[in-house]
Amino acid sequence: PAIRTEAADSRTGTHTGAADGETVIRDTVACTNLIKGKEYFLAGMLMDKKTGEPVKDGLGREIRSELTFTAEAANCEKVLEFKTEGADLAGSTVVAFETLLYKDTEVAVHADLKDADQSVSYPSMKTEAVDEGTGDHVGAVSERTMIRDKVTCEGLVKGKEYTISGILMKQSDGEPLKDQDGGEITAELTFTAQAAREEQVLTFSLNTSLLQGETVVAFETLYQEDRQAAVHAD
Predict the structure, then answer these.
(1) Can you give the pLDDT at residue 155?
(2) How far apart are CA 159 and CA 224, in angstroms?
(3) Which runs of consecutive H residues, i.e. helices, occur in 136-186?
(4) Among 12, 41, 7, 47, which residue's Cα sits nearest to residue 27?
(5) pLDDT > 90? residue 220
(6) How far apart are CA 65 and CA 46, in angstroms?
(7) Residue 65 dihedral angles phi and psi, to the nearest 5°
(8) What is the pTM of this model?
(9) For residue 12, pLDDT beyond 80
């Protein structure tokens, strides 16, 4: 027998997912050269592409899935589902490894950390916003102020295009900050990932002459192919 697999996030149906709430990875396993009517055992586990180690949940348990089935034909497809909390996967690219057993004997393995079809990425973001003039978290009131928001992204897929969208919020009431014309103050940046971990900078331009005594907070959202991949909003 031989097995060929493709893993995808259940919500997006793609190789990129958002790490929030319960997360399910569906791993479609195409099996060939089975014996019709015979029973097989399929076992899978998630591996961290960066470290090569098993991915573990919040309780320190490896994230596994298994299935016992009787072959309906020589060639058939089966689905393994890996379930965990999105927080366990944030900032990682995970790879599904699979083993097929017949009568307790390993008859096929698919385990390749470099296989894009077996991989699902769950980006995360860490950010730090500073006043461009002072270089820290305290700025001077001015008619023209620049806030530089350094966004550190992890769990990206090299060669894929991403967009970071940001908006400034008032800490006092949680509402978007408005400019003198009543418009929200936003920034956006599109880039192609050169590595799994990258830093990008959003620049917000605003007039702070009416903001004396106010604290503003930058909220950011990361998109990949128009799908939300990560959010940092606190």
Answers:
(1) 92
(2) 12
(3) none
(4) 7
(5) yes
(6) 9
(7) -150, 150
(8) 0.85
(9) yes
Q: Are 140 and 157 in contact (CB under 8 A)?
A: no
Q: Which residue bears the tokens 């393995």? A: 109
Record the tokens describing residue 121, joined without a space.
């990425």
The half-sphere exposure of 158 on its side-chain side, counting CA atoms within 13 A, is: 8
What mean pLDDT is predicted for residues 172-191?
91
112/168 Cα distance (integer angstroms): 42
Q: Residue 86: helix, strand or coil by DSSP?
A: helix
What's the farthest any 2 CA atoms get from each other in the chain?
77
Q: What is the distance of C-alpha 138 from the center of its chain? A: 32
pLDDT value of position 118: 96
* pLDDT bucket at 226, cuts 50 / 70 / 90: confident
- Pairing between strand 216-224 and 92-102? unpaired
Q: Which residue type occupies 135? A: G
Task: Return the closest-CA partner of residue 17 out of 232, 231, 234, 233.
Answer: 231
CA dist 69 and 37 (Å) reads 9
Tell me the sheet residues that pair with 127: 151
**Tokens found for residue 225:** 């192919």
